[in-house]
Design brief:
heterodimer; A: about 400 residues; alpha+beta; OB fold (Dihydrolipoamide Acetyltransferase, E2P); 5-stranded antiparallel β-sheet; 10 helices; about 25% helix; about 35% strand; B: about 300 residues; two-stranded antiparallel sheet; 14 helices; about 0% strand; globular; binds adenosine-5'-diphosphate; binds magnesium ion
Chain lengths: ~400, ~300
């Protein structure tokens, strides 16, 4: 019922950015960025704090004018169109609810400005959709963070915009509420149909569970763009490999290519990688392998057939996290490798100090070019979440 | 979802009750303030109220009065000085509106437009406050010069035909209202500035994002949010302006006399204390009523 009132004709439209650059004085916030988001898609923009996500959204909303480049909505150039003339609505990072209006009037604000009929009923329907109908006459300051967030969502969605911009809308919520809202947001997107959702987040799990397409942004640029599974399975840059989940990256040199497999010499061991999973087929490269794709092979045990084997190494740390256990293994010549094993209840795994070898199937490996980023606390945190396999706790 | 809703609703429950036992300390801390109020507000007002009901000693010396309950003092004062009362409120009202018209844009520019330029902001604020560095009386006398018949302002206005050749500015209601506006402008500007200074610009952006053009955003977002500043500024302008006598005395004539001038002359020249006191009480009561009606109407309770 709510959806009928909301999904007026008009629907979503393609959003296209062409060579967008934004400079603040000397600093470049968004750097020659181009991308296309098809109508009706759920697009996640993922990147660390300060990489230019908010700036990009503000240029789409019209709150910031690009230094160079164009913004197209449904093919129309809106680069310099004033915000109130764009078919775009924003759920602001800070919600920005009007403190002098009650919840219902907040939601009806856009409809009233456009002199739409039934503004009040439609606002009420939008509030029902986010399950806040009973609080319609409250002041927003009297609501909890999660409730305010839903008012902000209703206030934007009720206008049935072609493009809905969500700037870290779940950032201020606690983990449990965030998970619920992720599901809720997906449901609402299905319900309103057609509206293009651009969801900005720095939470890689949120991006992967919600979006059809994820763009990983770093320092004002898009590093890689694609469906979440594809991005996770085959990252194309060291940044993506370690921002979206975590990867073991081993520097080496390509020495041969045979039967569609690249042979990479990494500190004396021959690592095999499918050639079509390689960014470069010669020279200095990084061989990447996800921690959950690596198996521990106990000393004396047989190695699995057709696998790349590294080691032996020494188990330096074991951390149990419920669904999985992470092992940190120091392998001479390669540094510290990370291994995730699912807790299948098959007895205790390796102990600290134990000698183990590491094995993986070559088809899971990938080849990147560049410097391996040092694992910071952020990536560590991101990796732990990713280890659950994207299914969530 | 529903579970989250109920738990979140429960969170926003009643605030914890204030701690007990500290009330004695609270009273102790309040004592100096209360003593001050009793000494300098309650007592004078009580004396004023009593005096306003005194009666003249028949055939006594000038100004001699004796305690009585002569309520006619009020009706007499009201009837005799109705024009001055009306003028006071009219002049004060016009001056308040003018001060708002000048002060709001000024405060907006300083608080919002200059937000990223603290140096300019500070400079403009100093300029707003600068008139306080000289005496109120001196500034009003300066206005007398500015508006005088032979002044440059009048000459220029006459040359460009904005003012008829035989017209004058000094000793007119215009001069009095101009003086009131000028003198109380900072009292209008500063509270509005203090309010707009805290204005969350993200709300303006939200307004624009929700299809409100700049004019509508101002009307629907900025203006309602700055109501507390406007109310405070209007009160700080209107109340002293309604009781003012300096501007009318220096810039006006007998025909522009305000109630302040009457009270002044009743107290200090005619030595008619009961009438002066009755007028003061009436002025106070009228202002209280107007202010109460105004604050109620502007409905800023939940913003203050
Ligand atoms: N108005 C501004 N003036 C100057 N620098 C800005 C402004 N807005 C953003 N920046 C800079 O641009 C970069 C990107 O910011 P932002 O888009 O907010 O990042 P994110 O939303 O990804 O955290 C940051 O380095 C930030 O300091
Ligand atoms: Mg941001």
């Amino acid at each position: 019922m709510a959806a009928d009132l909301l999904a007026a004709p008009g629907g979503g439209r393609d959003l296209e950015l062409v060579g967008i650059t934004k400079r603040f004085g000397e600093a470049v916030a968004v750097d020659d960025l181009s991308l296309r988001m098809p109508a009706g898609s759920f697009f996640a923009l993922l990147g660390p704090s300060g990489c230019g996500k908010t700036t990009m959204l503000r240029m789409v909303a019209g709150l910031e004018v690009p230094t160079a480049g164009q913004v197209l909505i449904g093919g129309d150039d809106v680069t310099t169109t004033r915000p109130y003339r764009r078919p775009v609505n924003t759920v602001f990072q800070s919600y920005a609810l009007f403190p002098h209006l009650d919840v219902l009037e907040n939601v009806a604000f856009g409809l009233r400005r456009r002199r739409e009929r039934n503004a009040e009923q439609r606002a009420m329907a939008a509030l029902d959709m986010v399950e806040l109908g009973p609080l319609a006459r409250r002041r927003p300051t009297r609501l909890s963070g999660g409730q305010q967030q839903r008012v902000a969502l209703a206030r934007a969605l009720v206008n049935n915009p072609a493009v809905l911009l969500l700037d870290e809308p779940l950032g201020a919520l606690d983990l449990k509420l965030r998970r619920q809202m992720q599901v809720e947001l997906k449901r609402i997107q299905d319900e309103v149909g057609g509206t293009t959702f651009v969801h900005v987040t720095h939470d890689q799990e949120e991006a992967m569970t919600m979006a059809d397409t994820v763009a990983v942004m770093n320092a004002g640029r898009i590093e890689q763009l694609g469906p979440p599974q594809e991005l996770y399975d085959l990252p194309r840059t060291p940044f993506v490999a370690n921002f979206l989940g975590r990867s073991n990256l081993l520097p080496g040199t390509v020495v041969e290519e045979r039967d569609g497999l690249l042979g990479v010499d990494a500190a004396g061991t021959r690592l095999l990688v499918p050639a079509d999973r390689a960014v470069a087929r010669s020279g200095q490269v990084l061989v990447g392998i996800r921690p959950e794709k690596v198996h521990l092979v106990a000393a004396g045990a047989d190695e699995p057939a057709d696998s790349t084997v590294l080691g032996p190494g020494t188990v330096a740390d074991v951390s149990f996290s419920g669904v999985s256990t992470e092992y940190l293994v120091d392998v001479a010549g390669y540094g510290r490798m990370s291994v995730f094993t699912q807790n299948l209840g098959a007895g205790p795994g390796a102990m600290v100090g134990e000698q183990v070898r590491l094995a993986w199937s070559p088809r899971h490996a990938f080849v990147l070019v560049g410097d391996a980023p040092a694992a910071g606390p952020l990536e560590r945190e991101a990796a732990t979440v990713g280890a659950a396999g994207g299914t969530g706790p | 979802m529903t579970a989250a809703l109920t738990s979140a609703t429960a969170e926003a429950g009643a605030p914890p009750p204030p701690p007990r036992g500290s009330s004695r300390i609270a009273w102790l801390l309040l004592t100096p303030g209360l003593a001050y109020l009793v000494l300098f507000f309650v007592a004078p007002v009580a004396v004023l109220l009593l005096t306003s009901l005194y009666e003249r000693v028949p055939d006594g010396p000038v100004g001699a009065t004796r305690p009585a309950l002569r309520w006619e003092n009020y009706t007499d004062a009201l009837v005799t000085y109705a024009p001055q009362f009306g003028r006071s409120f009219l002049y004060a009202f016009i001056a308040t509106v003018l001060a708002l018209a000048i002060g709001y844009p000024l405060a907006y520019v300083i608080a919002v437009r200059c937000r990223n330029r603290p140096l300019l902001q500070g400079l403009l604020l100093v300029l707003v406050i600068a008139p306080f560095f000289t005496s109120f009386i001196l500034r009003t006398i300066a206005w007398k010069q500015i508006l005088a018949d032979e002044s440059l302002v009048v000459a220029v206005l006459k040359t460009i035909s904005l003012l008829p050749d035989d017209a004058r500015l000094t000793a007119t209601p215009t001069a009095v209202v101009a003086g009131l506006t000028y003198n109380f402008l900072p009292f209008m500007t500063l509270p509005i500035y203090a309010n707009l200074e805290r204005l969350d610009l993200r709300l303006i952006e939200a307004g624009e994002d929700l299809y409100a053009n700049p004019a509508e955003t101002f009307r629907r977002v900025t203006l309602p949010l700055s109501m507390p500043g406007i109310v405070a500024g209007s009160l700080l302008t209107f109340i002293p302006a309604a009781g003012d006598y300096v501007n009318s005395a220096l810039l006006g004539t007998a025909s522009t006399a305000m109630i302040g001038n009457v009270i002044d002359s009743r107290f200090f020249r005619v030595v008619d204390y009961p009438t002066a006191a009755a007028l003061s009480v009436l002025l106070m009561a009228a202002i209280l009523l107007l202010v109460a009606a105004y604050v109620r109407r502007s409905g800023t309770d939940d913003l203050l």
